[in-house]
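Section 4.2 – Deliverable D4.2 (structural model, holo form)

The reporting period included a commitment to supply a predicted holo structure for the target in complex with XIL. Inputs used:
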Amino acid sequence: MKKLLLLFFVSILSFPAFPADSEVLTLYTFNDFELGYEFPVVTSNGKQIYGAKAVIEAASSTSKTNKLLHVTNPTDTIGYVALELPEGRDAIYTCKKYESFSFQLRRPSSNTETETCVLEILFGSKRVYADSEPVKRQSDKLITYTCPITKVSTNNKQMRIALLATPAEFFIDNVKFYEVAYNIDIPDKTVRYWADQMGKNFGTCVNPGISTGDTFGKTVANNFNTVVLENSMKFDATEPNRNQFNWNADGVVTFAKQNNMKVRGHTLTWHGQNPDWVSNAINAKSGAERRQEAINILKNHIFKVVGHWKGQIVEWDVVNECLNDGQNPAVGGGYSTRNWSVWYTGFGGEDYIDSAFVWAHQADPDAKLYINDYNVGMWNKEGKTRAMYNLAKRLKDAGIPIDGVGFQTHTSVGYFDPSEVELSIQQFQAIGLNVIITEMDMEGGQRNGTELIRAISDSELKTQAEKYGKLAEILLKYDCPTFMVWGVADNRSWLDCSENTKPLLFYADLTPHEAYITVRKAYQNYAVKTDVPEVEYEELVIDNEVKLDVYSITGQKVGVISSMSELQDYPAGFYIVGNKKYLVK
Ligand code: XIL
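Output (structure tokens):
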């Protein structure tokens, strides 16, 4: 056999300089202050200047939980307020570390006319931003300002915000410093960049109409590499009338393709969001005919819907929310499914679950197939997790084509415990099933029943960041393929009062939560630090029939090459070949 001498050209496959850690610093949301607390006004040499008054007030007459700072100056046309920078963060430090600064401003609701104001922001004695874009006075509306931070030469610990206007009265909220994580010009600051490197699906639910022509669509495409339709692939959306299909979700599939994103399918078999004709048709029959009718309807639906998007959907939620609430079985101790679901009553038992998986697999053999549910994920804390384990194991043992289990993970800051999810992952992986997170949101604040009585606090936002970040670390450590959140910005969540509970990764103004940054750190750290043993080769001798396996950095085999130069034709990212890690740019 002919021998080839293959040299490693490490220099053309060198590693990039990795960016330094970065974070969002939320300086003031004012929610942790007592109503009526009075902020210090700006003083000069101990002397108060401009005579402004700054008091904590409720953000609206209906909410006592969301607070802001009300600045007034009855004696002049300028209102200044001084905000202290946290310990150890003087203006110079802040300017070195953060690229921009944002806050929300509102003019008094009594003034409804449109006007132009001049805004000044000062770090210490240095004016960082002056003569801002004109403030269009809009009644009772918080407007977000984002200002670049330029260099300042002062170590003053105070930051001042001033508004020149008549009267000198304004409301200010959500003051924060951040690096522009959602800016595509700096992709290595996004989670998406690192998820792409590792072939992981990191995504959000979206709705038809999304387009990269606006900031929202850009934010989605820049920060996520996977989308799922919030409603438009459900039964009532796709087959509103019997055998008449509606492909409203096509536009989102196109959006995903245009942006090199993947699409999850949600969902084929669920008790919810079914059109009335389904139960009417099934209930019109009885006995064996009834079962046959249910089989006909579900089989046709799955073949048509999965077939329509064949090859374009990475994962399908084949069965959604089939388990009863409140069960707490042991491993091997069984489970109970919702016997009132139209599919259960139609089929006359839970074998609709088995059938749905088989049909989905036949319709698109490449799609990964999942069973999905809520209140599952925390092994000891959520008994339904073990019901899911028992059911999934039954399906797996029966040879049903199931790839894994989706934990929806609609949860809250105080309750959620990522280490419990780790325990679950270990259990499911031991029986050959993937675990993915499909619909995560993590609310802060406090509810009395369903009524929100307190908004998320600053310390809860920090805990939220820790828990989201820890979960991301765990998902990567166990090579879980998918991590999806159920929405982008807090104000567009399906959850009630979400603008105050802030369950997602972006604020309403599309600036990232601290949680976004911790998730990014987890992805970045994992991409950069792998446990691959470094083996020193100067040269590798192979014969031309020997092929080298190419692995993703999480150890999945992604191809075979017969010379290192072939690696350069692979998509950008990290690869492992012969125990060495390479970066293809
Ligand atoms: C929700 C959507 O977000 C809402 O817009 C819709 O009104 C109801 O359904 N679990 C699921 C999702 O599997 O399909 C649900 O989505 C949220 C809970």
